[in-house]
Amino acid sequence: MSGVEMSGGLLLEKMYQKWSHRMKTEPGGRSLDRGLPSLARVVKRYAEYCSLGYLSLRSGLSWLLPVSQSLCLGALPRGKCPEDLFLNRRVGQTEVSNISDTRSGLPGGIQLSDGRLSQSVCFLTWDPVSQASQQINLVPEFALDKTYVYKYEALLLGGLPQEGLARAGIKVSSKVHLSAVTENTFLMKLMDPLLHEYAGIWPKDPFVPATKLTSALAAQLQIPIKFEYANGVVGKVFAPAGVSPTVLNLHRGILNILQLNLKKTQNIYEMQEAGAQGVCRTHYVISEDPKANHIIVTKSKDLSHCQERIIKDVGLAYTEKCAECTERVKSLIETATYNYIMKPGAAGVLIAEATVEEVYQFSPFNEIHGAAQMEAKQSLAFVEIEKTPVVPIKADYLARGSLQYEFSTEILQTPIQLLKISDAPAQIIEVLKHLVANNVAMVHDDAPLKFIQLIQLLRVATLENIEAIWNQFKDKPVYRRWLLDALPAVGTPVIVKFIKEKFLSGELTIPEFIQALVVALQMVTADLDTIQLTASLAMHEKIATIPALREVVMLGYGSMIAKHCIAVPTCPAELLRPIHDIAAEAISKNDIPQITLALKVLGNAGHPASLKPIMKLLPGLRTAATSLPLRVQVDAILALRNIAKKEPKLVQPVALQLVLDRALHPEVRMVACIVLFEAKPSVALVSSLAGALKTETNMHVASFAYSHIKSLTRITAPDMASVAGAANVAIKLMSRKLDRLSFRFSRALQLDFYHTPLMIGAAGSAYMINDAATILPRAVVAKARAYLAGAAADVLEIGVRTEGIQEALLQSPAADESVDRITKIKRTLRALTNWKALPANQPLASAYIKLLGQEVAYFNIDKTIIEEAIPIVTGPKPREMLKAALKALQEGIAIQYAKPLLASEVRRILPTAIGLPMELSLYTAAVAVASVNVQATITPPLPEAIETMTLEQLKKTDVQLQAEARPSVALQTFAVMGVNTAFIQAAVMARGNIRTIAPGKVSARADILKGNYKVEALPVELPEHIATASFETVAVVRNIEEPTAERIVPLVPEVAMQNAHPSDYLSSEIPDETPVRSSAPFHKTLCLAVPYIEIKGCIEVHSHNAAFIRNTPLFNIIGQHSARAALTRAEGPAVERLELEVQVGPRAAERLLKQISFIDEETPEGKAFLLKLREILETEDKNRRVSSESSSRSSSSSSRIISSSSSSMSSSRVTETATIMEPFKKFHKDRYLAAHGASKAVSSGSTASSFEAIQKQAKFLGNASPPVFAVIARAVRVDHKLLGYQLAAYFDKPTARVQLIISSIAENDNLKICADGALLSKHKVTAKVAWGQECQQYAVIAKAEAGVLGEFPAARLELEWERLPVIVTTYAKKLSKHIPMAALQAGFRLERATNSEKEIDLTAALPNQRSLNIIARIPEMTLSRTDIHLPVAVPINPDGTLSIQIDEDILSWIQKHIREE
After folding, report:
1. Which residue of 481, 483, 648, 1288 is surrounded by the most CB atoms within 10 Å?
2. Do 610 and 580 form a contact (C-beta atoms < 8 A)?
3. Among 587-591, 1078-1082, 1109-1113, whose mean pLDDT is lowest?
4. Taking CA 942 as the corner, what is the angle to CA 937 and CA 945, rounded to the nearest 5 degrees?
5. CA 1440 to CA 1435: how far, in whole Å?
6. What is the pLDDT of residues 456-485, one digit of tens each?
7. Amino acid 156: pLDDT
8. CA dist., res. 697 & res. 1271, Å (int)
9. What are phi and psi for residue 1286, nearest 5 degrees?
10. Predicted confidence (pLDDT) per residue in 344-361, tens digit
11. Residue 258 vs residues 295, 345, 1000, 1454: alpha-carbon distances, Å
């Protein structure tokens, strides 16, 4: 409610007089509240004098709600208002706020709204600001004949907010002279500017004057600038051309303080205000300090909510902002607060003092757990008024924009190094030569950083410079490769133009062009000029003649449009007109490849204007689309996915209509289902889909949709929370029978993980679209998605379709639904052999790959490609290549190769209040270098005509190969938060380094005739460390005038910090946190010596972090961490080589280095050995019993709990379990003739006895027959001592027995491992594994048998043992304590039983081909579960035979085809 403003002097005087009179005449008058302002006491008391029934006060005073400038005394009956109050008669809608202030004791008012008030309303308008504004103007005053002098200080400091840690920053101090040229035009000049830099422990270390930098910039800084200023708002800014954008931005930081939008009628309000950072939400609060005669203005800016934000993003074009991820936690917080003290004057107000505090807080994790902080502070204090005006220099003052920040060279330079570029071409050549010379045999430590430096230099080079460098080095292969790897990463339009020109002139090969162009289009800034350049390249006739090349360029063209539209949301639809024209022309000509290409380009662009052209190709929506091939319809639907991310409401109804249209092909409907859920449908849409699926007749569609909805119910990613909720509602509406469909039906699966405190997550999706008529899936799609710091991205997606094969199979007899599955498989295999009968224009299969949501490549396999590939594979060219390769191997091959990669460049540049840019960036670069030498010796030499060589000749060939490789990789990553300008950098930086070197030298020999194959590992020279990794966080400051004098300080010092208060910091607040004290660094070295080969490996770990401040992920990362791994020769005899030798055939026994024999137990030596072994085992058993008794006492209580719970559970399920506890019976010729009461003991006993009988016939097969093959692994030492192991394999065909003996070749070492197995029948197999001294210490017997359980085919596995090592039994007992709980959670029934303590029995039965019953008998308990659903059918018949048959015709065709080849 608003009143009529009136002069308050006379009115207040009358009010005060009447109030005073009342106080004098009324005995025992009530005392007034002492805390109320005098005006309020007057009004309150006067209201009581007028006998008002209620009172509502609204004022700008601090103790009342500051909503209006009216103070309403209430509503009185008509004509009853006091004469000394202004009478305002109003009839109509009136709203009186219901306000009650318990502190002041005021009675509550009433609230009237939407009613007609037939009584008079009395108003008294009084507000200090309103009254003052009638006398003075709130606009800052700068008189024409005066020069206003201010003291200015600005500080930008980055680091962690805790004291005692390092920070980096910049401070600017100066005097500011302001004078008016005209009424609305002013001049501003900086006097005595001084720059300071800071990199030290805050607040102990002082700022350091940047004297050289100040001197270099003094001329620019002291040039006066001109600006428009009216009613507190800064308009255009003018400056001579000699003022660089960076220096002008510093002036804008001062002008930003003068930006004031003050309203006369409101003292608290909100608006979108223009400033240096853009047009952002701003809150104003205006108040008055009557005692000091000051007007106080406070404004705060929420820089996260801006209509127009000045910001530059690099490398984030294809990421999606996850708004839901940052609703509760944020990774970046931006806010600013401005405080003004103004003195009223005759014509306006004088800004006496202004302070600005701006904070940027960033953490890759939840900011609650700590965050890095950039803090900007400004202080502008009035000093004096001078008469000397500011005089502009004699130069043209050019319009340089407005108050908004102007980007300069920040994009072209990296924040990790500051280069003084004087001669770009010469510096590029210098760095290029350094990279080539120092990365030959092994990668250089700083190679990644040098590669980034090369990219930065190329960014400032002109096209002419790059042309000259290319012409100089294009004929030198090593330099050419380095240039072609660096140029695409530059990311400027110049590079795209250069790559285009070089390809069209024939200087680049097709592989070089594709590699360079794909990377360049992803890195380049997508402006209109670059888009037109890419379009002209795509339409060039040379590109058009190479279909694969044109596809790559066209897909890049669509990606360029997508990037541009992300940067410019109002991008015109005209950019897509060439693609729309291509699509329209292709449709008119029925050119399927061109239609497919146009759809994929439109899908990459993702512009909503493409929805109409795409819908023309959607089936069901347009009749013309039904005549198009199925693959075109699918591509048209998939093209909607990127549009759905921008305009989901447009895509959702289209996708739902396609899913519900039963006249469409099932694959089309399932693909539409994928698009629908990616468009994040509402609960209503998902419920509609679920309701329609109740009557769905196609089980593939029903299975796909149901599995998709069910997987979405488990999604935890915040951006899919609404879809997950809708899926949870919809799944309840669907039939649970769909959950039992097997995997041969189409299916969708989505899994994800999201950790809210760390704001990190990952998601994976897999879609399998099957066909009822064939065994091959029609399509398989897999996608990976990642979440980090409030952003999300589709990292990788791969899709494969077999549409051509499917259609060929559907036309074959295999598509007959009336035949059984085995017949379908046989017919399918026959159909695949007749691929030559397929049409030439129909692809057999296709695949595509997407990176960051953009399709980068796709290819089709059709009949033509196969026909062209067969002659290439079977023709003379492969033989010639093989011949050339063998010749090169004999002569020796030496390869030295280097491959650099800029793996990531992600940047966000934000202007700060002081005019300097703040940057958040992540760089990762890697360089891999490999040096390979290979030499081959072939005896006898191969014939000239290799194709004439027979198999017999090949068998007589002895091939020796020696190879030495030295691969090495260096990787460096940098995360930066700080200032990045052309003249100074100050930032906190995290940098990580990884370097690995893995040298190796091997010699291999293959003597095919003798069946001998040997591989030797030869000694090589090892570096000091084969792998190093380091990570450190530092504060760094550097300036262009002293590039070698950069100062780097560890963020977490290793010494204890003492408390100190900043002397030159702008804030006067006393920090409330106690100074931190550093903890001792962690340092540890672990070494392990490998026996026999005398090699020692050591890992050295050093860590010093800030977890002593707060134990959170961020503070655990901050600090210094390093790890180094080294391999050295241990003490002892040197090892000449390591050998692995395989001998096949009758000569295997000759190659054994130690004769294998077993002690005869009947001889005196054997008896003595067994007696000694028995004593050892008895001692071991005694120790085991003592330890088991102590452990059993400690766990008796928990055992009783488990026993009681298990017994109660068992009693309730005993009836159900008894039905599957029937005896296991073996298979016989007629399985139904087996004795019904045959016991398990009898059957197993007969199996064991027969196996033991076979063993007794020959304990060691080597006594009667030589080994089939032998394997020897040994270390050859200089002292010729035998060390290593040998394996001998024996086979006895009459008894179907296999024996493997592994033994040590060392002298006096009788350790052996013996594995002995026999196939007793086609349903039974038994094996025994024994090990220890002479294989006598420990043994395990395994028996596997097929049979029946009740009436169902079954299999049984038994494990029996007499003795096991102590470590095995110890861990087995610990594990057994968790079995009951795990079994119950898995749905098993559990019963306590007196089973054998040295036996495990597992029986599995198949009631049908899709279910399984399991019984497991282990010591002390029996586990069982019935009707376990199997995802696929097991092809086993009730009689135990397999239901799979292979057609003889197909086998003969395969054999014939192999013989022909």
Report:
1. 1288
2. yes
3. 1078-1082
4. 150
5. 10
6. 999 999 999 999 999 999 999 999 999 999
7. 94
8. 60
9. -135, 145
10. 887 788 999 999 999 998
11. 15, 17, 69, 86
293: left (phi over 0), alpha (psi -120 to 50) or beta: left
**Is the previous residue joined to 1353 through a cis bond, with omega within 30 degrees of 0?**
no
The span from the CA of 716 to the CA of 785, in Å, is 13
Q: Which residue has the higher pLDDT, 824 or 1254?
A: 1254
> What single string gives the DSSP state of each residue in 943-965?
PS-GGG--HHHHHT-EEEEEEEE
146 neighbors 133 (Cβ within 8 angstroms) = no
Least Cα distance to 767 among 745, 792, 738 occurs for 745
Q: CB neighbours (10 Å) of residue 145?
A: 9
Give CA–CA dist 659/674, Å, rounded: 10
- Provide the 10 A C-beta neighbour count for residue 59: 26
323 in Cβ contact with 359 (< 8 Å)? no
Instruction: Give the distance, in angstroms, between the CA of residue 57 and the centroid of all CA atoms in the same chain.
Output: 56
**159-211 pLDDT per residue, tens:** 988 888 999 999 999 999 999 998 899 999 999 999 999 999 988 899 999 99
Angle at CA 913, nearest 5°, toward 911 and 914? 95
In angstroms, rounded to a whole number, what is the distance separating the alpha carbons of residues 1268 and 1291?
Answer: 7
Which amino acid would we find at residue 39? L
- Retrieve residue 950's tokens: 């027979």
- Using alpha carbons, select from 448, 166, 223 the residue that is nearest to residue 1119: 166
* Helix/strand/coil for 323: coil
DSSP, collapsed to helix, strand or coil, labels residue 648 as helix
CA distance 536 to 543: 10
639 within 8 A of 600, measured Cβ to Cβ: yes
Residue type, 1360: E
Determine which of 364-368, 1149-1153, 1263-1267 has the lowest per-residue pLDDT on average. Answer: 364-368
Counting residues of the chain whose pLDDT is more than 70, the rounded percentage is 75
Q: ∠ CA(563), CA(566), CA(571), 5° rounding? A: 95
pLDDT at 1285 over 70: yes
Q: Which whole number is the average pLDDT over 509-524?
A: 89
pLDDT of residue 143: 87
CA–CA separation, 630 vs 664, rounded Å?
10
**Spatial CA neighbour of 558 closest among 475, 681, 641, 494:** 641
Residue 1356 CA to residue 1343 CA, distance in Å, equals 8
DSSP reduced 3-state for 1159: coil
Say how far apart CA 435 and CA 473 lie, in whole Å: 14
d(CA 1461, CA 1455) in angstroms, rounded, equals 10
Higher pLDDT, 774 or 979: 979
Residue 521 belongs to what H/E stretch? helix 510-523
**917/922 Cα distance (integer angstroms):** 16
pLDDT digits (tens, 9 = 90+) for 1047-1106: 999 998 875 433 333 334 343 333 444 444 556 788 899 998 887 777 888 999 999 888
Residue spans of beta strands (DSSP E) within 1040-1115: 1042-1050, 1082-1090, 1095-1105
**Comparing 1192 with 1095, which gets the higher pLDDT?**
1095
Under the banding of pLDDT at 50, 70 and 90, the label for residue 875 is: low
Closest CA to 835 of 817, 801, 815, 811: 811
Using an 8 Å Cβ cutoff, are 484 and 520 in contact?
Answer: no
Locate 876 and state its tokens: 């003379």
Give the separation between CA 1108 and CA 1103, rounded to whole angstroms: 13
Instruction: Name the nearest CA neighbour of 191 among 254, 278, 281.
Output: 254
- Reported for 550-553, long-range contacts at CB under 8 A and 24+ positions apart, including other chains, are 550/597, 551/597, 551/857, 551/858, 552/514, 552/517, 552/518, 552/856, 552/857, 553/517
Please, which residues have CB within 8 angstroms of residue 1316's CB and are 6 or more apart in sequence? 1255, 1297, 1298, 1299, 1300, 1327, 1328, 1329, 1330
Return all residues near 941 (Cβ < 8 A) that are at least 6 apart. none
